[in-house]
Write a structure and sequence with these properties.
With 169 residues, the protein is mostly helical. It is built from six helices and two strands, in the order αααααβαβ. α2 crosses α3. The termini are far apart.
Length: 169
Amino acid sequence: MSRELKRLQQNHRLIADLYLQGLGPAAIALELDGEYLPDSVSRVIQSPLMQDFISRRRREIELAADEQTKLAEQSLRERVVTAGGKAVGTLEGLLGSESEGIQLKSASELLSHAFQQDGGAESEGAAVRVSTLNINLIHGALAEANSPPELPGSEIIDAEIVPQTESPA
């Protein structure tokens, strides 16, 4: 005697959730403390009403997971932007260092960051090489945004964009 499901009971919804977690009929029957035999669980799962419910429930779970993923990605983007801003601020601060090597390295990193932000095709895989110890050009660009102090005796930078073949040491 075959009885078709007419409506879903609470246990049927539990069976669907356990099924969606990857459990088979025998494991579901055990989870339900013998209330259903594995053959009964299998028949419930195969019924058209349950198949429709499982499809809808699967879509709900996928949509919830997609939303969680989007929220996590947004949070990560915000953290990266915040960290990037702090890193750029630190590099800007290093432009005033007494060490010319630190000035050059920070100037180079700032220019590389600026070219990557522009997203131009010519900037992909490019590195910026600063060829003098003077950083007036960078200070001029930063003056528009932050008005940093001028370095005494500075001269204009000779900078060029060159293809990056290896990571700079």
